[in-house]
Amino acid sequence: MSWLKSFFPLHSLFVKMLVYFLIVIFLLSSYNLWSMTFYSRNVNNEIVKYNLTLIRNTVDQFEKQYSTWKNLLLNLQHDEFVGNINRQADSGGKKGINYLQVDMVMDQIRTLVSQPYYHLNNVMIYYQNHSFLLERDGIVDDDRMFKHYYISDSYPYEFWKQRYHTTGFLHMLPSSIFSIGTEKSELQLMPLITNVQSSPWKIIALVNMKSWYESYKGMTGSRFLLMDSEGEILFESAPDVKTQPLPEWDGQSEWMMEKGSYYFYEKGTRSGLTYVSIIPHNELNQSISRMNWIAVLLFAATLLIGILASWVFSRKINRPLKRMVTGLGQAEMELYQGSIAEFSAISNHLKGLQHERKSIKEWMDHTKPLLTSYHYLAQFKNFALDTAAAKELWVGEGAFMVIVYQLRYRHVPSRQLDALMTRATGKIKDMITLQIQESFPLSHTLQMEGKQILSIVYTQEKSDMLQQCLSQLKQIFDQDQSTYLVNIAVSSVFQQTSDFDRAYAEAMSLLQQAMPIEETQIIWEKERREDVTGFTAEQEHEFYVNLQAGNESSCQSLIERALDRLQRQEATADQLSHFAKSVSVRMRRTVELLKINIDALPDYAEKLAYSVTPEQYRDILLDELAHAAHAIRLKREEHYDIIQYVFHYLESHYAEEISLEQLASKLNMSPTYLSGYIKEKTGSNFSDQLNSIRITKAKELLQTTNMPIQEVGNRIGYRNVTSFIRMFKKVTGQTPGDYRKTNWIR
């Protein structure tokens, strides 16, 4: 025991850290053990609850679906037009049928079949006395329908010819494989047949049970059975799987365990159908057992690794600290050479203090000019500075002026040029500093932004010395005008250092007077300038319309005239740049609105940013125009016919409130251009086309229905009956009432 205490002192850092690590490990391990035990005990109960919920949800969905099918087929069974077709066939055969009424019934059937929620493959009205069916695609003879289009071994043609004498309106038959259409594609369909006594026709609905089951299927690996009240299987999710007979159900139990499988039962209250879900128990138990073993192995491995890691970490932390404590009593303490930053800091602290003090002093001397520049920058930008710290930084007093040098490089930057431009800006700043300080020793020059340099010159006036100094800088800069240009703005003389921001703002406003020329400009005074105009409102609209049409020549003429006008008005470089950027943005937005991939077009924004003269702007804008117009023309050529789309849209939405602006928005066009395009291609305007379609639809309703005049108007899009009557008479020469009297189809 004493040997153990000497090796593991109870109050040592190593033992305490090891104990704390182990406590945390055992706490986490206890929780994991409890979680595994709880999970194993409750997993079977959770499986039963989960699957009961699944089958109840499935039953609820199918019962609602059953009621929906029943209501839909009941409405169709007693539809007026369905009966009319039978009476017409009784009196005159197929030739005596009113095909307008056939179309109306077909529309109802198509609506039912097209709804994905109903899961109907087809709905047929079977007139057995006349041996034909009315379905979604028209009238088909019964022998052709069940021998060519819907073929099933379980339901041959002779099956459909027989008549049922069962009770109840809706009769469900077991699902079967049908070969459909000329392609003979196979689907599993469940027939629904209406049963109305003394009715000469019946409704046959074919339900796509595979589609329905995929919408509401339950747990993976389970099987689903749907049985009628007599126990006959109507639908089976896995008909190819061989299974044992179902155990007898007492009608009360929610589930039972039989021969290694769970059986979940539920009976529908509306349909009387029995729903069965079968889940193999053996596979589930194997998965759970395998998961438990894996969890145990992982737990044991984690526990062992945690204990070993605790030992290693505790020893790694304790050993260097023990050496440092031992070295305190020695003449020279051994310096710690390890990877723990805190221990290195402790061992090097005393020696580092002196070195740190010397380094701080050298750093302060080196960074004082930089801090002074920052102080000036804060004054210009109105930054809040600590008052006590700012007193230590030198800032000149007295009258001063601000000189701003705005650099403009002539080449579009790349990765290599970016670094060169940064170094070049630094060299230019050094050159300005040298030149200005030679004449004004108290001046200070700093870089405000990436391409902007600023000098604070302490002087009482704009002297000849200053003009000579700036002229010398101009001569130097002009030698490199092919690489960069410099615009120099000189503010007025200000008396108080609190006016730094005002002086800077004044100099920046003077820079806006720079002209689009390729030389260094020095701007001394504010000049009055008139507003200039690039595009007038009419020209801008004309440019937009021609650009949408891909008319390059017209757009080119407008751009050239605008640039010529700006030159005559002596537009500044800033005004010229603003115009060029606005035209470029307009072209790019137009291309985007026409759904053209703008990534395929070159990026002209940077090229414009590095342009100076009107000729350079003209070349870039015309080049961008050529690319944009070419892309628009290609888009127009590959696009489908606009007129065809307009007619199709009006035919499909004539009953809605349609406007030219709404249609133009869908086509990404301006209403003016679309109106002119329709007039050019059809000879009539948008309103005439819409009214023509509406009046044609109104004639059909007046001829074939006894619908009130006001409702006819509402059906075709006229919300005001007076407007409808006026337009109808304008087009046909008759009022709707007179037209119905002379054209009513009985």
Automatic annotation (TrEMBL):
CDD domains: HTH_XRE. Pfam families: HTH_18 (PF12833). Keywords: DNA-binding, Membrane, Transcription, Transcription regulation, Transmembrane, Transmembrane helix. It comes from Paenibacillus lautus (Bacillus lautus). The keyword Transport does not apply. The keyword DNA-binding applies. Residues 644-742 form the HTH araC/xylS-type domain. GO terms for molecular function: DNA-binding transcription factor activity; sequence-specific DNA binding. The chain crosses the membrane at residues 12-34, 293-314. InterPro entries: Cro/C1-type_HTH, Homeodomain-like_sf, HTH_AraC, HTH_AraC-typ_CS, Tscrpt_reg_AraC-type_HTH. This is AraC family transcriptional regulator. Residues 658-712 form the HTH cro/C1-type domain. Gene3D superfamilies: 6.10.340.10, Homeodomain-like (1.10.10.60). It comes from the Bacteria. PANTHER family: ARAC-FAMILY TRANSCRIPTIONAL REGULATOR, HTH-TYPE TRANSCRIPTIONAL ACTIVATOR RHAS.
